[in-house]
Amino acid sequence: NAGVTQTPKFQVLKTGQSMTLQCAQDMNHNSMYWYRQDPGMGLRLIYYSASEGTTDKGEVPNGYNVSRLNKREFSLRLESAAPSQTSVYFCASSPNAASYEQYFGPGTRLTVT
Amino acid sequence: DQQVKQNSPSLSVQEGRISILNCDYTNSMFDYFLWYKKYPAEGPTFLISISSIKDKNEDGRFTVFLNKSAKHLSLHIVPSQPGDSAVYFCAASPGGGSNYKLTFGKGTLLTVNP
Prior knowledge:
The complex is a heterodimer.
Chain A: E1 4-7, E2 10-13, E3 19-25, E4 31-37, E5 43-49, E6 56-57, E7 64-68, E8 74-78, E9 87-94, E10 103-104, E11 108-112
Parallel strand pairs in A: 2-11
Antiparallel strand pairs in A: 1-3, 3-8, 4-5, 4-9, 5-6, 7-8, 9-10, 9-11
Chain B: E1 4-5, E2 10-14, E3 19-25, E4 32-38, E5 45-51, E6 56-59, E7 62-67, E8 72-77, E9 86-93, E10 103-104, E11 108-113
Parallel strand pairs in B: 2-11
Antiparallel strand pairs in B: 1-3, 3-8, 4-5, 4-9, 6-7, 7-8, 9-10, 9-11
């Protein structure tokens, strides 16, 4: 089992460009999450999907959109990237939204110039 | 307003000694606490957790202590090993249907010297 996979690992964008970060899990989990981690900060929740077909905003959703494509996949889209979105992005999954423990992917390091 | 605080950005200990990582929280609604470990270029991995109804949870070399009245928890690693060198994040959940809403601290970089 690969667990949670994320693509790409690294990305450099210019201000105003768009891109989609991909995430997939093979643990048959119902719930999936997107976080960002800024230097010297803890992880902050951007969006989450409690189950297939549902998505909800987290703590810092502005500038992002998400799609729960199916049970395995949860993508994060930046429509018009800004330098403030330079960060490391982590996708995570859990058996369901009642689970405390979440399983994280390796992260995508995004730089917006 | 930082609800979960890890006031020590870094900690250095000798191999074989005890490592103690501390975490304070301000929100009395938190009822479940977790520690995650993160190596460079990897995602965080779950280490150990504790419910607010307990004051101690032990798993091998790792023990988490919770002092609810002080809103303080600590992670003890005994004995420390070089492979334990990583960033450790404390996280807290309010439970009550929002179990997934983890609030993370900024992390503490632990270095275990051989």
